[in-house]
Amino acid sequence: MAEIESADRIEQAGERRSARIESLRALAALAVFVGHAFALSFGSRPGVFEGTKNQLLVGGGLGVFLFFTLSGYLLFLPFLRAQLGTRDRVKLADYARNRVLRILPLYVVVVTALSVVRPFGGQISDWWRFMLFVQNYSGQSITLPDSPVWSLQVEMHFYLVLPLVALALAFVARRSLGLTAVLLLAGAAVSYRLRAHGVETRDSLGVLYGLYSLPGLMYLFASGMLMAVARVWIERDGVPSWLRLPVLGWSTAWFAAGVLLYAVMARHDQLFQARLLPFAGFLVVGAAVLPLRPGPAVKALEWRPLAVVGVASYSLYLVHVPIIQALTGTHVKVVGGALVTIGDGMSFKLTLLLAVLIVAPVTAVSYFGIEQPFLRLRRRWA
């Protein structure tokens, strides 16, 4: 099975990437963008979660969790193939260099600039928290100076522990994909319970380890790691008979089912969302990476303009909230484990229009001026 088919290809700083994967990044980032634009335009006025339309718009913020599933799949896949001997072993120096050059340059620029400007109450004295990726462990800094960076702390911690997790799985499972899957499911169950405890109790320990840190979110990375197991299993043993059935083997059915789960979650509470998030991510990522029967969903994910947005989705993700906050005069803080918007806000349609007009060029400048040079450097070093 080809790693990247000719139709599923896009360039990022000279590297060949999967257009389907980049399109998933684009959809996740755009959903988060719209969700934040709506929530921040509403300000502190009540009613933001009332009604189906409002819930679906705010629910765009669930897109951040798809990034975790994608990371679990993409980063665990090389370790798993190496474990089975189908690929060369992963060189940890290369792995570390790639992660650092992918994440840190833009992160440092954005966080430093916002810490200096202090537009939303961020303090220069908190700078060390962000540089060490420990901002989530303080209620005073978790949303500062740019609220989306909370998820980058979780990502960075996953990058650090993944080689150890992969080594432990290789040692215990001994090349057994079935046992690898069982161990991942067991770990995911423990992680889910931590998150559920944080949602149910809202005590300080539950919020700390269940809502905004890796222990309570590892089960979402595990859903992507399980997809990597499924992918390698099919590469080794061939497509199973049940994936050849008309509906079960149709990529559009997988994608539609995943999107439907996200829509359902948007209308329910956080505990209900916690239960369904790994399944939604598993289905959506599976539609893009498994050898399923192609359909409209795959064709849409291979649409080049959408994939181009995905290529620059990291810049879009980091720059959009400060711009929207500046437009609406709102900010976000954590109250009882929940993100609460403070401020009067403004019309959502006007916020969205102005945000698009400003965020789009800023994203382009960020990507071409900061991200791309370091990505090219990564390629040259490789």
TrEMBL record:
InterPro entries: Acyl_transf_3_dom, Acyltransferase_3. It holds the Pfam family Acyl_transf_3. The keyword Transmembrane helix applies. Residues 20-367 form the Acyltransferase domain. Keywords: Acyltransferase, Membrane, Transferase, Transmembrane, Transmembrane helix. The chain crosses the membrane at residues 26-44, 56-80, 100-121, 156-172, 177-194, 206-230, 242-264, 276-294, 306-328, 348-370. GO terms for molecular function: acyltransferase activity. It comes from the Bacteria. PANTHER family: ACETYLTRANSFERASE, BLR2367 PROTEIN. This is Acyltransferase. The lineage of its organism: Bacteria, Bacillati, Actinomycetota, Thermoleophilia, Solirubrobacterales.
